[in-house]
Amino acid sequence: MDSINQRLIDLYSLYWPTLKSQSYKFDDCKIKPACPLLLQVDENRFHSADLKIMYCGQETKGWGSLENSTMEERLERYRQYFLEGGYIKESGTSVYWKAVKRFQKYFGHEIEGKNVVSIWNNISKIGLKKRKGVTDDVRKLEREYFPVFKKEFEILQPDIVIFMTGPNRDKDIKFHFPALKIEHSGTMQTKRQLAVLNSPELPDVALRTYHPNYFGGFNQAMENTKNVLTKRCTRIK
To answer: Taking Cα atoms as reference points, which of 200, 183, 202 lies closest to residue 192?
Structure first.
């Protein structure tokens, strides 16, 4: 059986040494990059899944020190935090993880009886060491030395992706998928509030909504997002 985790490791190994070698450029900077978010899956559940859903946020707030961490440590961190449920402890206070749980509950009801697997990813693979957001320098670091986001899609082939990234990060999605078309959702929401994303390199069901940190806007779009998912999921049930 094809090992998805090994394919991800092989991908990251191509770029990790060079990325690490660039950390010195931030020695004199107050704002430093964190380690990249390295994905892993539960192989048994992944290969038997009827439906693979990727929840894509913006970036991590701190994720280890780039200059001092190993790739193996970052892989293990993802396993413990996401695959082993460490994030659940934060779901009481984190609006992002609350939103993920709401979607998981929705899919559990909407696609009853199916084996559904969740994947967590971020549109910016490299966040900042001690704060939220991404600087231009860190964004450039990722694009030049760790361009893995699009290739992760090729390996994981999710059936659905929900970008909870907000409209201001559309340029980052377009960077990875240049043929991207951002289209109206067919609801009362504007494209800024909720958009359908079409690209040959994205799954048939790809949506972009507000980040849950924009609490009011995200909640207003949530029901419309579910309605669009309900219509579009009929293609893959």
So the answer is: 183
